[in-house]
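Quick illustration for those who missed Monday's session on complexes.
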Amino acid sequence: MATIVPTLFSFVRDSYKGRFDVATFEKEVGRDFDNQEIAQAINKYEQEAKNLKNKDEIRKVIQYIDLTTLNGDDTASKVVALAKRAINPIPTDPSIHCGSVCVYPQRVADVKKFLTATKQNCHITGVAGGFPSGQYHLQSKVLECELTVADGATEIDIVISRAAALEEDWKTVHDEVLACKKACGSAHLKTILATGELKTLSNVYKASWASILAGSDFIKTSTGKETVNATLEVAYVMCTAIKRWYELTGKKVGFKPAGGIKTVDEALGFVALVKDILGEQWLNPTLFRIGASSLLDDCLKAL
Ligand SMILES: O=C[C@H](O)COP(=O)(O)O
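Prediction with glyceraldehyde-3-phosphate bound:
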């Protein structure tokens, strides 16, 4: 049995690899979400967040953070200052560091140069692939992923085509993510669904599934630039998709809520949700990140 189970897992996983079959996709994603059930679960996570609020959990939250700046006026000195903060977010405790520093493609080389010069390590996330609108030619999305990895990004955050998603063209959503995944090489790919623009929870589940099938290492809620960003409701649906994929294939896909998460209380709501749906095994920076530009400030205040 011990040998049969992994073999079965890899058979299911390999049968999905690199191809998109519309009928199989539709069969898998044809499910409804019970809004009342989700509302009850969210209420529970918000309560649990209060119980989780202690210094140990806050220190863990700091380690989940992809410390982010995504502004038009970002400069080399600004992203280097951010990288220093990501490497040593709690000045009195050098053992703690953030998950990564997250910047625009043109600023990746600045961070890499600083890390090389100072012989320090930190994951560099580059947002690429037409972030944040996704309204670019696929060739340019792919080239942007390649250039950003060449500049030193170890993780790439791309965003799906909402145009294709809203037109129910899930094959295009899948194929674009697959092309970007190939362009990333060994860099980890986090695929942003921009859930605030997907209109329905059913679309959020379908976008999750298309992105997972295409080989995303993580799925991420939002760019931080949509009107509505990370919510516990979409997190519930996305984590349900991650769980289903794990049950089918034995493969763990990470989860990254991002955008508008500013307080420890909000962050701990996502921690409670991940713990409930995916289990403790997901609660480490390999499988769980929080994309945030200002959450660290609130964490340090609460310590
Ligand atoms: O990916 C990360 C987000 O862009 C950060 O959003 P935020 O500035 O609302 O924290």
